[in-house]
Amino acid sequence: MFSSLQxxxxxxxxxxxxxxxxxxxxxxxxxxxxxxxxVVPVEQPVASTSKLTPPATTIPAKRPLxxxxxxxxxxxxxxxxxxxxxxxxxxxxxxxxxxxxxxxDHFVVLYDAILPANxxxxxxxxxxxxxxxxxxxxxxxxxxxxIQCAAALKRRPAPDSSSHPSVGTEEEVRVREExxxxxxALRVTRANVEHLILSKxxxxxxxxxxxxxxxxxxxxxxLVGELARCDRCGREFVVKSPPASTTTEGEGAGGxxxxxxxxxxxxxxxxxxxxxxQRERVFRxxxxxxxxxxxxGCSQGPHVFYExxxxxxxxxxxxxxxxxxxxxxxxxxGTLLDVAALDCEMVYTTGGMRVARxxxxxxxxxxxxxxLVRMDDGVEIIDFNTRFSGITPSSYYASARLSLSAIRxxxxxxxxxxxxxxxxxxxxxxxxxxxxxxxxxxxxxxxRHSAGPPYRKALRDLAREHLGITIQTGGGSVGHSSVExxxxxxxxxxxxxxxxxPKPKPPPGKEGEKSPAKVGEGGGCSRE
Length: 528
Description:
GO terms for molecular function: exonuclease activity; nucleic acid binding. It contains 15 helices and 15 strands. It is α/β, with parallel strands linked by helices. The protein has three domains: 73-164, no CATH class; 191-214 and 318-499, Ribonuclease H-like superfamily/Ribonuclease H (Nucleotidyltransferase, domain 5, 2-Layer Sandwich); 227-301, no CATH class. It is elongated and about 120 Å long. The model is unreliable at 48-72, 247-260 and 514-528 (pLDDT under 50).
């Protein structure tokens, strides 16, 4: 038997004088102090400011359930908290939590440059990294594996963007590197993209120009002094030559100050998001409700216009086919490509939206052309659209030397009518280059949108989903890069070749076989 510690001797016996226990654990002294009162704090209801008479019984306000119950492994901007079932963990939870904090600290140091724009990234990756290590370890090897992983994080180069190869867990980085090596080692040729070339029917469905329009091309390059409908606010306006100050960069307009702008608009397209359990349409630029939000827009700049009618485009600058392949193979230029990825950046001008930068990469992803395009005589730039084009007035006026006609001559040395042109919504690029071409691979059509035509997925979404990279993140004065976009488009085609090879054709003459679905059925993308 254990000896008594006599801890109950400070408490009065509840039976007092009626106690019949021979050796009572409690005290029967009469001079004991009164026991302290137990005070339980109760949350008081908040006084109502309403003039209505409150009900007799008021239910105290309670904290919402979401404040008490968090989803498992939810990452926050601070150190993450491991939420797992302790009974099912072979490693003690306190040990895992301490080593998770170690991983988090290393990710914070590694992501120092990108954390301001991605505050929860370090916590998210620390949670995933710890789970990766735990899944591959046992109770004896877990701690050593975490330490080795932390050392590997120290050796990584610091990323400068969220799409940098150093971003991610060890397994994610390894898988991405292997996939990248496999893609980069693949040279895209006509033979391995033959099954992805759009048919004539697909080209018609998606609005490709199939022939040179009638009439004199380039007869009316500019619309100065005439009415046009603004592509931003939808109002009619008289097209005017921009002021001389357009050689310096301004807010929204090519050098025009915000106070002088004539058009107030939202530069972001309406998107659907869920807020408070309800779906709503908001503008991507400022997240105000669309359509209408109490004001006319969040940005200010000049009125601009965009034309898509083929006859109007032909009147600004003539359409033409690419040159046919040479009949004599000896005359074939050594630089002629059988496959090329193409992308353009456009600006708003007095002649509508015109090409200002052209980039071409070959089947291996090597850059073969990247030129700024000088506007035709009589055509002036109204807005450089830097947020999307990435072109600034200073860089443009310092480097744009070749006209569109000269650019077309340069392209004739690289591509011809038999070259497979790869692009994303490439019909827009061909139109702005005034090229008629019918041998194309369009990733905006091949990667189908769930809503079907005419909707098409954005290139940045496809790159993030299939390539694990983030593109078009410049924004502001940086914008897009046509070289980056053309390489991303080529990599998407490489991904298709590796992960979705063409199905073998049925034996000739076999009856009952269904013809394969057209490439373009159910896909699509928007102009941007």
